[in-house]
Model the fold of this input.
Amino acid sequence: MTVDVVLSVPLDRTFTYIWPVDRSETPEIGMLVRVPFGRRKMIGMIVGIDKHDGESKLSPDIVLKTVQDILPPEYHIDKQRLELARWMADYYVAPLGTVVPLMYPPAPGTKARGKRRVDAEFPLHDNQTINLTDEQVRALAFVEQRQSDQAYATLLLHGITGSGKTEVYLRAIEKTLARGKGALLLLPEIALTPQTEARVKKHLGEDVATLHSGLSAGERSRVHEAAARGEIRVIVGSRSAVFAPVRDLGLVVIDEEHESSFKQDDRPRYHARHVALMRARTAKAVVILGSATPDMESWHNAQKGLYELVQLSSRPSGHLPNVEIEDMRGDYAADGFSPRLLEAMETTLDAGRQVILYYNRRGYARVMQCSACGEAVSCPHCDIGLTVHLRPRRLLCHYCGFSRDNPRDCPDCGHPEFLPSGSGTEKIEIGLQAHFPDLKILRLDRDTTGRRGSHADILAEFSQGKAQVLIGTQMVAKGHHFPDVQLVGVLAADDGLHLPDYRAQERVMQLLTQVAGRTGRVDPGLVIFQTWQPEHPVIQAAAGHDYQGFSALELEMRSRLNYPPERRLLRLGVSARVLGEVSDAAQVLTDLLRSGLDAANFEVLGPAPAVFPRLRNRYRFQILVKGNLSVNQKAWLADCIAVMKDKNRNIDVIPDFDPAGIY
Ligand code: ADP
Ligand code: ZN
Done:
């Protein structure tokens, strides 16, 4: 007997192995096996079985190798997840064998060493009994109804931070468990949401486990096996947890469903929200998408009636944060702080309350600039300016990690003086300390959270009131619940509005809404948006909590320009070390696409140099395709790419379907 196996190699074909005679198991589609491949051993999935003499269909001079090992039944890919993997292979044009490894932990079967790690303790503030609001009741009723109908359905839960979404998730999970079904709760970045995790565990107890890349291989295997055996019924995790082998799946919750971290930016470039919807469809499960600023596509689907929409329009605490727009046009804020922000900080701190300051760039200064010719010191491997860091004192490439000392003389004009230009969280912290010398400040960004656990430690310290101010990048915007925070200052609210990406405005809206939501949890808080464009519609909408107004404008623009959700988008990234080779290849590919796709349904943009035209010594071009490619058209595209690569091995072409960003 022989079996056909797919392996995680970039070849879209199967490999045939002899089934070992000394094993009692019979082969089944979806089973994982260990097989010899070249000089290596690899894990593969069985996709075909030949019960007869396998050699009959093969030429006699091919010597088949034998399956070496069969993974335990916990690692069997069940029918639904197998269907999911096949869908992903088609949709993202990836060989099935490269999708399958998403379905099991990196080193399956590894024994977990030692005790389960206990995460940092967080005080949970919500102990009082809760009477659900009418809106929460409506959301739960929808979930229950669809679950009892055994029908796939999606609920979009639109509500600002603190409006009671998590309460709905927890109760929906509870009800799902009561039906004897399992649930998945996906969070954008599990390291950033220890509080949610603690809350879920408190609510649901031993049925719950977390799954994310920060766990050891042993811990991940243990959770995987327990879920597959049905001992763990709820998995909380980041995007890859969407593949967890939860049995009898009845509910998938995606919190902060608009977050781009649900998109994997490495092959296979899947979107966990899309995958979750497909998985729920085959499992006849209910999906809850929750957000204060739903993704345009989700919002559009709700508008069209494809999703049920429930809006949580107020906070149980009764307070929406009050947002002030501070006009920064003028020259008085050289260190980044307007007099208004400083005054509000003083009032807040005098009252014994806490402050969060948000600035979306780490480091001390954006670049070092020659004071004579203005040239900035940039990375030798990437066309990106090097960010200035003080502790330790280095110039650092935020893309590839290259670092160097300050240059003595300008490589362009020889002038011996460089000045830091632009700002970063390190500089903001120093500037703030100068205004308030006795203030205890914590900083939260990639530089202060490198060590494992340090992220949770900083949040715990702030939560316990060991510092009055928390300064940071996007990290301060996400998910935390600090009742003592009375003031949030956004130092540059318009940052990012004009990035060359059709999603730039949506991203700013999301961030501003999120960071503003960090205050006013207990009593009316204050948010100050410092901005150089006070009249900008996005700033206005974010300040006015007007997501609907924003989304109407945004959808109109998307539809006019044929961007998602009007049409789907494909980004083809073409790169190589030699500039001429890249630009030629990108042109050839663009011409192929233009001639192969009908202009009525497809728009091909480019080729154009990418936003970052050179990274890690590779020149980069991009081609955008607007339109809904069929599976056949995608296969044709894959062939075009394969032919190109055959002609020139130095060219790399990466298709990214539904890209999270265009860079
Ligand atoms: P979100 O997930 O939208 O940020 P949460 O579910 O965390 O909101 O709710 C915010 C706070 O309000 C929590 O402390 C929660 O316990 C509380 N809460 C939620 N729903 C209600 C309710 N119906 N009545 C009173 N308090 C509520
Ligand atoms: Zn670099």
Q: What stands out?
A: The radius of gyration is 27 Å. DSSP finds 16 helices and 27 strands in the chain. The mean pLDDT is 91.
